[in-house]
Amino acid sequence: MSKLNKIRILSVIALVFLAFACGKFGRSALNVTNRNFSEEIMVQQNLVFTFNTNIVKDSLIDIWKKDEFVKFTPKIEGKFKWTAANELVFSPETGFKPSTDYKAEITEKVVEVSTEKLKLGDDVNFSFHTPYLSLLGTDIFWVMNKQNTPELRMNLNFNYPVSPADVNQLAKVSIGGAEAGYKLNTTEVGESIQLAVPQQASQKFDEQKLKIAIGSGLKTPQGEKPASDLQFETEIPSKDVFKVMQITGETDEDKPYIRVYTNQMVMPNDVEIKRYLNLSPAVNYSVEMSDFGFTLKGDFEFGKNYKLIIDKSLKGIFGGLLGNEVEQT
């Protein structure tokens, strides 16, 4: 073979290799430049991914697709929609699992729908989680139980439903530094679990330090990550002093109502208590009593201010008077 032919063959090989390299390695890197979420997401929300380049034509925008443009671990069913040439939205069918760690990986299907020569870059993998199981707070209040004994009750309020049996197995209650035996008052799975400690004649719980500790391992149904140690500390309110702890506007099935929280049961029944209340503007309402306060339900309107005045002579179940008028808008 002549030297000239060898040069020609080498030139052809070089051109083939260059064409291959341009086809494979000359592609633009596709990366996610913006997201509508960070480390923590809500259980019910859409995820939005914005890419560094346009990917789809206008004809593919605003059409829901089942293609797995993003792979989620653990797997979650849902659908995708391009809302712009470079923006992809994922909508879960039933929401994300509570208290669960997730991984998201942009797949080759995103590259496949592009008319440009693209390859997946480095910023296409993400980790996030739904809010972990936590103890939001505790309602502490006094009642007189069926044995006519003062009883301290504690509503443990979680951000997800939990099993009363699981809480009972992991919880410890101490009063004044000494472990206190409690009873479980809740039987059904829910976000609020009630514990109760009867006060014996030889005991004094008033103004003592209360500590509630729940050992690690508590889980919510459908959630994958168990909670670590959960703790709550506070001072036990004196049952000899009757107090309104807070007044809040809340909703139930999209119906607004007013909730009054007290540190013990209120003495009057749900009919008599109205003479201690002044509500303006006036509306038709009824009063529902609870172990730790009462609720005003009636013709309340969203976006409207109401002023509630509670008379100072309102009495708690242990005989103490409110002492001062309570007013809140």
Description:
With 329 residues, the chain is mostly beta strands. It has three helices and 25 strands. The strands form seven sheets. It has a five-stranded antiparallel beta sheet, with no helix packed on it. The chain has a four-stranded antiparallel beta sheet with strand order 11-12-16-15. It has a four-stranded antiparallel beta sheet with strand order 14-13-17-18. A hairpin with a 2-residue loop joins strand 13 and strand 14 (178-180).
Strand content: 35-45%
How many strands, which pairing sense, and closed or not: the largest β-sheet?
5 strands, antiparallel
The counted number of beta strands is 25
Query: Strand order within the widest sheet?
Result: 2-3-7-6-4
The gyration radius over C-alpha positions equals 31 Å
Task: Give the proportion of residues in helices.
Answer: 10-25%
The CA-CA distance between the termini, in Å, is 100 Å
- Classification by helices and strands: mainly beta
Give me the number of helical elements.
3
Low-confidence segments: 9-25
Order of helices and strands: HEEEEEEEEHEEEEHEEEEEEEEEEEEE
Bulk shape: elongated
Mean pLDDT: 89
Question: What is the gist of this entry?
Answer:
The chain is mainly beta. It has three helices and 25 strands. The protein has a five-stranded antiparallel beta sheet with strand order 2-3-7-6-4, with no helix packed on it. Strands 11-12-16-15 form a four-stranded antiparallel beta sheet.
For this entry, give a set of tags.
single chain; 329 residues; mainly beta; 5-stranded antiparallel sheet; 4-stranded antiparallel sheet; 11% helix
